[in-house]
Write a structure and sequence with these properties.
Helices cover about 35% and strands about 20% of the residues. It is an alpha/beta fold.
């Protein structure tokens, strides 16, 4: 989408649809207050009213609620509602008159983010009559604001479009979005940016490296597993950042088979991988000054005659042994290898993101992702960025008693405790065993990757994590 700034008066702007955000109890700005029907406008949160003044030809008023409750999240929601209405009206150009706020930059970026995310849809597999014209889309957004906000607005565009690409990856069926498909996407990003390199290890190389978690989970499928390693060299004086994203492109549960109801949604078990891959693309496009190592361990988890069995013992990349007591707790096994590898490659701060536990959805629903960290400073930075982007995280504790749950009976660790306690924290405690003393944060997005229900993410793929990871990289850049 083309995004630009303009300092023209709202009534003078040339666009198919002008949008104005209105606070409860307040009036429309300038000449718009005298437009026919303007007196019917209400600022109640999410309330919309479409008017047809002489100029502009169509005016959409979106309620923001009470001014004392103003926040960027409400603007993101309002912009998404406007994007939907623009699509219904077949408007190809939209202009937004920013409501007055104490932070014009945050408001402008929220408008851009909400508009781009709210306009996303996934319909590539619906049959189309070749004679029918393509449905109109919003092609351009004009934000009525000072030109000094150009950099922030452009960054918001880059991040929102990257998030939509992650949503595309999440939505693709698993017979298309295979581990090899993700590897090709990572390579295409490297070919587009001179600052990015991508190496992809297949089954033979993974086995030779003795990555026992990757080997174990992938041995039940014919699909070639891929360990995707992306490096972004942006310079800067800050620490080398490491991102790790879980890339299980379809999760049956393996021998510990999942119930069949809803299993089709397990194509989204690579949502962490999608977030990491597209975040790297956005970071490179924004030319952030830092060095980044991104690792995506990707495989299917399938039951077969060659699949790993409950009770088997494996050796992870860092040498620790694990009793695999539940083959549906596979994500932590592949992440363990990838985390240890990221540290070995030189990552000085590591963040992993994964649809890891159903327990996090029970604890936090789809409002917050779970956050577990061994470092207070890094955890605080992730929490702050989550608040800024609206991709909220809630920190859960680590404690030696949780660590005791990870101990195996005849091996160092078990991937599934016999006691059904603190499932999300247990999984985080397991992963902590593979980062040593390196500052590390784990983000469990099992509840926020799909069916969040916000106006700008809808009830399917959300792309959660892309904007959080990009903004975190921006904050940590030296």
């Amino acid at each position: 989408m083309k995004v630009e700034l303009s300092q023209a008066a709202p009534a003078e702007i040339e666009a198919d649809l002008l949008v104005v955000g209105l606070y409860d109890g307040e009036e429309l700005p300038g000449e718009l207050a005298s437009a026919p029907g303007a007196g019917d406008a209400q600022g109640a949160y999410k309330k919309t009213l479409l008017l047809h003044p002489e100029r502009p030809s169509r005016l959409l008023i979106v309620g923001l609620g009470k001014r004392q409750d103003a926040e960027p999240e409400r603007v993101r929601v309002a912009a998404a509602l406007a994007a939907r209405e623009a699509k219904r009206l077949k408007a190809e150009s939209v202009a937004w008159a920013l409501p007055e706020s104490g932070d014009d930059e945050a408001t402008a970026t929220a408008v851009v983010t909400g508009t781009i995310l709210g306009g996303w849809s996934f319909d590539r597999y619906r049959s189309k009559d070749p004679e029918d014209p393509a449905p109109p889309q919003v092609e351009s957004l004009t934000v009525l604001a000072d030109g000094a906000l150009a950099g922030a607005v452009e960054a918001a565009r880059v991040c929102a479009e990257a998030q939509n690409r992650a949503r595309d990856l999440q939505s693709l069926p698993s017979n298309v979005a295979t581990p090899s498909f993700l590897g090709r996407r990572a390579r295409s990003i490297a070919s587009a940016h001179t600052t990015v390199t991508t190496d992809v290890l297949g089954r033979k190389e993974i086995t030779e490296k003795e990555m026992g978690g990757m080997v174990a989970v992938s041995q039940g499928t014919e699909e070639e597993p891929q360990l995707i390693v992306m490096r972004y060299s942006g310079g800067g004086s800050g620490p080398t950042l490491g991102y790790v994203g879980k890339g299980v492109t379809f999760d049956t549960g393996g021998i510990s088979l999942k119930p069949s109801g809803g299993m089709q949604e397990m194509k989204m078990d690579m949502s962490g991988a999608a977030a990491v891959i597209e975040a790297v693309d956005a970071i490179a496009e924004l030319e952030l000054p830092l060095d980044l190592i991104a690792i995506v361990p990707s495989t299917e988890n399938m039951p077969s005659g060659t699949a790993i069995k409950p009770g088997d013992i494996i050796t992870q990349y860092n040498g620790k042994t694990v009793e695999v007591n539940n083959t549906d707790a596979e994500g932590r096994l592949i992440l363990a290898d990838a985390l240890a590898y990221a540290v070995e490659l030189g990552a000085e701060r590591v963040v992993d993101i994964a649809t890891l536990t159903g327990a996090v959805m029970i604890a936090l629903g789809s409002t917050y992702a779970g956050l577990i960290a061994n470092d207070d400073e890094l955890a605080g930075e992730v929490e702050e960025v989550g608040r800024e982007t609206g991709e909220l995280v809630w920190r859960l504790p680590l404690h030696p008693e949780y660590k005791d749950l990870t101990k195996g009976t005849v091996a160092d660790l078990t991937n599934a405790s016999a006691k059904r306690k603190a499932g999300t924290i247990y999984a985080g405690s397991f992963l902590e065993e593979f980062v040593g003393e390196t500052p590390w944060a784990h983000i469990d997005i099992a509840g926020t990757a799909w069916d969040v229900g916000r106006e700008y993410t809808g009830k399917d793929a959300s792309g959660f994590g892309v904007r959080l990871l990009v903004e975190l990289a921006h904050k940590l850049a030296g």
